[in-house]
Amino acid sequence: MKFVRCLSVLLSVLLLSGCITPAEHSVPVEVGPPIEAPAALADAMLSLTISDLHGFLDGTGAVMSQIYPMLGGPMLKTLLGSKLGDPQLAGFAQGGGLALVVLSPTNAFAVAEVDPAQSASTIQSLQSLGLKAKQQGGLLLAAKNEELLAAAERLSAQVQASLLDARREPSLRFALKPSALINANEEAIAAGLRKMLATMEKTAVSNQVVDVQRMLEMELQVFLSLGRQIEVVETTVMPVDGGLRLAKTLQPAAGSRLAAYYQAPALNDYNPRLQAGLLPDGVIQLEFCMRNPDALVEFVRGEAAALADVTEIDPALADRWVQTLARWTATMGPTVCESVLAEGGQAAGFAFLADVSDEEALLEAFRNVSADLTSMGLLRLYKSLGMPLSAGFEENVRVVDGVPVHRLKMNFSLANIPVERRGAMESMMNNLSLAVCDGVLIYASDDAAVEKMIKTLKSGERAVSPLAARTVFPAGGTYYADFDVGGYVRFIASFMKEVPAASAMLDKLTAVLDGAEPIVMSGYRNSGRMTFCSQLPAGLLVRLAQAGQLIALDRMQKNAANEAEPAEPQAPVPAPDATLSLLDGSSVTLSSFAGSKVVVLDFWASWCGPCRKGLPMVQTVADYFTGRDVVFFAVNLGESAEAARGFFADNGLTLPVALDDGALSEAFGVSGIPHTVIIGRDGNIQSVHAGLADDLDAQLTAEINTALAE
Fold first, then answer.
1. Beta carbons of 357 and 369 less than 8 angstroms apart
2. Pairing state of beta strands 230-240 and 332-340?
């Protein structure tokens, strides 16, 4: 009886991986492109790989610069290169990469494809961080101690072949071995479960608490069982068309139940008559094809038996679950379309279309729903949870265009539910209408939605726009889905009308996100593997950044409004005492100006568009203060002396130039350029300008005059 929640979790995973209908074809159908094996190292528990570092940073920079213009590829390379002692990552050839290999939770090493001629500064930077590092051929190795460095030497060739050379692409790949991780920690996991159960037994004060605790235990056992059957799971992040694509690929362990399931042939294909566009609009719109019922039933049967072995589930009860699943799937066809949180006057709802292979068997299954729920222990379960459930099926409640409409009644007793939460639950539980029209099951939480879909199917009007996911991902997927972020925020806002502050903020976010391109998702089962894909489009990322800025501004305004007393003056911040290496070959320390000069540092690079606009403004201010106690330095970030000298000559700039290998910018906390710092005569930082303001010259002039007057 406590099997319901863990089995629902299991089925939700399996449904999306696609196999829950009777075989309508005698031969396998096309199931999309082949799925490459995850790139993993035999001796590693997990690994992180960027096989094309320059390509990944350039692509990621193109994405980030849409949100923050200064964070382009060159800036990302400078930020990373300054940490490695290699500005602009010149030591990494185009197409070269790096990998972090974790052998155990406390033991790891890194391998990078670095030109030996340019690795000395990188090795020095790593050693300054307390790491051991050395060059081995074209590979730079780093670890926290000599023992791990020796492991890196021993495994470096495998790292290059299995991780770096496996797929040369501008992506970040994270590979984890769940089965190895679970097996290595089996005793600790078992001890944790025993401790949890013992604590539950001591604190349980009612049957309701015991049932919830046991469901939690079974959920954990289900996920552990699945984890033991997954040899490798690889997550990939790749910039694509100004957006980000994420993919997760599962490689099942050889001989496991999951491997048999993924290797089962796909016998069903999509019914072109059914599309999510026929449904009311929703936050999530989904189409999936249920591929092979026998494989699914056998997998669930094996999982149920395994669960019964390690928990208190009655094996006969678990078997009744499997038999009920098999009986229901025998009535359904291959294609399912769903719209979740569909709009239609309700706070929440759904609409559903599916092929029907046996209409009379389907109706008979609905007639027996109460008996099924009783035999599976669900009615008893919900009663023990303080939410007694009654189920029933009413046939021929009304007729729409000659199609009988039925009602599935799934009513909870809400006596123990807080009053403010009852309305939404009542509206969902009392309006579960369904009909079978032309071999299609129509099922929704709203009567009007069912009536509308009947009329649509009867009219033969099927000209609807495809899901955005189908225009992004190739054919043959087990599912396709669109997720409307703006619609989701609008849905959340519908529950917050009684909270003015939250409602106002959500309305602003809705205005920003409404109409944005959806997150698109798809999944493929092929080559004995499963991959799940999603893509965040460029336009949505920009709007999400705008939404984040709105939230940050709102928080700042609230903090300002909550200031009951004036803030105490902050202590002066001393400027770091650094030595500047000047373009003419000389050097100067900042402390040498203390007590006599105001110092202005302007961090820049020739590839930075805002810097190109800002430097002439700084030059104008410097010219204005000629002959007064102010010194200016244009601090070039990570470029060669020749590049800096050529840029200044081409643009008629005469400011003194300092060259920074990353140490100075790090000392001043520079995270983006242009970045301008004014240091007073007392050696304290007077003001900081991050980014470029249209009136930068006026602001600098006023602030320098203030500093000179002190």
1. no
2. unpaired
